[in-house]
Design brief:
This protein starts with 11 loop residues before the first strand and ends with a helix. The chain contains 3 helices and 4 strands; from the N terminus they run E-E-E-E-H-H-H. It has a 4-stranded antiparallel beta sheet with strand order 1-2-3-4, with no helix packed on it. The protein is about 35% helix and about 15% strand. Helix 2 packs antiparallel against helix 3. The longest helix is centred in the C-terminal third of the chain and has 23 residues. The protein is an alpha+beta fold and about 140 residues long.
Length: about 140
C-alpha cells in the first residue's frame, strides 16, 4: 500500500488515518494555502480523497503522478477468511465470451485455415479464463 500523504505538500496527520494536505489540483493555480485536500484511509484499505474547493480526483492524482488504482490496497485474497461474492451471471458471461473465442479458433482449424500464433495465444488465454471462472464457481 502506498503512503499517500507523502505525495502531498503540507500533509498533517489528524489521527485515525485522516490527513489534511495542500491540493495540487487545477483550482489552486496559485497554490493551496489552506490545506483543502482531505485524505482518509478507509477500513477496507482504500484511500478516499476530497478537495473542499472542488478539484476532480483524477486531476489531483495526475498532478502527483498517481492513478486511481494506486488508491486501493493490493489484495489477491479475501480478507479475514471471507470468500468473495461473485455474481453467477457475470461468471456465465465470461465463460460464454471465452467459449466463443475457442469455438471460432476450432472452427477455423476444422476448415483447414491457418491460425496465427497471436490467435492461438488468445485461445489459450480463453481456456485459462474459463478454467478460472469454473474454479470460482466451485466447479472442478
Amino acid at each position: 500500500m502506498i503512503d499517500l500523504p507523502s505525495y502531498f505538500d503540507g500533509a498533517r496527520d489528524r489521527g485515525r488515518g485522516q490527513y489534511l494536505a495542500r491540493c495540487p489540483g487545477p483550482l489552486h493555480e496559485r497554490g493551496d494555502r489552506n490545506c483543502s485536500l482531505s485524505l482518509k484511509l478507509a477500513d477496507n484499505g482504500a484511500w478516499l480523497i476530497h478537495c473542499f474547493a472542488g478539484c476532480d480526483t483524477a486531476d489531483i492524482l495526475g498532478a502527483v503522478g498517481l492513478q486511481f488504482g494506486d488508491l486501493f490496497e493490493d489484495r489477491p485474497e479475501p480478507r479475514r477468511g471471507r470468500q468473495p461474492r461473485w455474481n453467477p451471471r457475470d461468471l456465465l458471461l465470461v465463460i460464454r465470451d471465452e467459449a466463443t473465442i475457442c469455438a471460432c479458433t476450432v472452427g477455423r482449424l476444422l476448415q483447414g485455415h491457418a491460425v496465427p500464433d497471436s490467435e492461438l495465444e488468445r485461445t489459450q488465454l480463453a481456456v485459462t479464463r474459463i478454467q478460472k471462472a469454473l474454479g470460482v464457481a466451485g466447479v472442478r
